[in-house]
Specification:
It is built from eleven helices and eleven strands. It is α/β, with parallel strands linked by helices.
Length: 317
């Protein structure tokens, strides 16, 4: 059922408009050697969301552009021999300060992330790397961040601290008026037999003690009482998050992946993807992504890059 108040993609249109008010983000695009990835790059550049640097085999990239009728003559091109080399050289550009964002082209995610996390040559920080979907769900009143559905397979409590903080930072970069985090499980009560409920309770206490900052956090919460005020009321859950969550933290990758894909394919949600916790935002796109979703992912990276600029400026002052 489509919402009359929030037509599909209306929030993404606002997201794109916000990003277009900012300087285009210099983005190292790793191995854009197929039509889908190259089309997304060209359109994002046309909308002034990114200023791409194409990294890959020059002949393949030019042949792909010619076959698709795409003009890439205005983009810098960094030569690389193959997909692994493209990933390494795109990451090197970031390390040298030549790019403020990294974007996946037609290579495998594992190839790109392998270069990102390489011990000597990667772009890791002290923060755990995690993935967020920024979802526009028809009928839901707020944009929805779902984490982690793509990077951390079975995160432990320490990992989840960073996963939650990364998502909170993203919510602020996206200009959420208030970040409300639901730590999901199968139930809303702490049960020693269900480890995710214990971790949820621990995360909430860590937030109380200032170990996680910038949001209102509650959990464990089941999905229904995290997003439905009616369900929360029926179960007598009194919480500023229950029924109003705009960040959903899942127990593990399997749960997150199934949740995000259910929202996409059954509820018609659009899902922009971004990786956080590295030195720069990393735009992860899929061959199944729509043009709108690809552009939204670039817009999210733009807003994150702007938040980092503001943070760096504040630190200098």
């Amino acid at each position: 059922m489509k919402s009359k108040q929030n037509p599909p993609q209306r929030r993404y249109e606002r997201l794109l408009a916000a990003a277009q008010s900012l300087p285009a983000v210099t983005t190292a695009v790793a191995h854009p050697c197929d039509q889908i990835s190259l089309e997304g790059v060209v359109e994002a550049a046309r909308l002034r969301l990114i200023a791409p640097i194409l990294v890959g085999p020059p002949g393949r990239i030019r042949d792909t552009a010619a076959a698709a009728g795409l003009d890439i003559s205005g983009f810098p091109l960094e030569a690389a021999a193959h997909s692994h080399d493209s990933a390494a050289k795109a990451v090197e550009l970031v390390r040298k300060g030549g790019a403020e964002a990294l974007m996946k082209g037609s290579l495998h995610t594992d190839e790109l992330m392998g270069a990102v996390v390489a011990r000597e040559t990667g772009i890791r920080t002290a923060r755990r790397i995690s993935h967020c979907f920024v979802m526009d769900v028809p009928g839901y009143k707020d944009p929805l961040i779902v984490t982690d559905a793509a990077v951390n397979i079975a995160p432990d409590l320490a990992d989840k601290v960073d996963i939650v903080q990364n998502a909170i930072d993203l919510g602020h970069a996206l200009r959420f008026e208030e970040v409300r985090v639901a730590i999901l499980s199968a139930m809303e009560t702490v049960n020693p037999k269900v480890p995710s409920t214990i971790e949820a309770a621990a995360l909430c206490k860590m937030a109380d003690r200032g170990q996680i900052v910038g949001a209102i956090i509650d959990g464990p919460l089941a999905l229904d009482n995290a997003i439905s005020e009616e369900s929360a009321a029926i179960k007598h859950i009194v919480s500023p998050v229950a029924g109003r969550a705009n960040v959903l933290v899942v127990p593990d990758l399997e749960a997150g992946n199934m949740l995000a894909k259910s929202l996409s394919f059954l509820a018609g949600a659009d899902a922009a993807g971004i990786v956080l916790g590295a030195r720069v935002p990393i735009i992860l796109t899929s061959r199944a992504d729509s043009v709108v979703t690809r552009l939204a992912s670039c817009a999210v990276a733009s807003l994150l890059a702007e938040a980092r600029r503001r943070s760096a400026g504040a630190a200098i002052r």
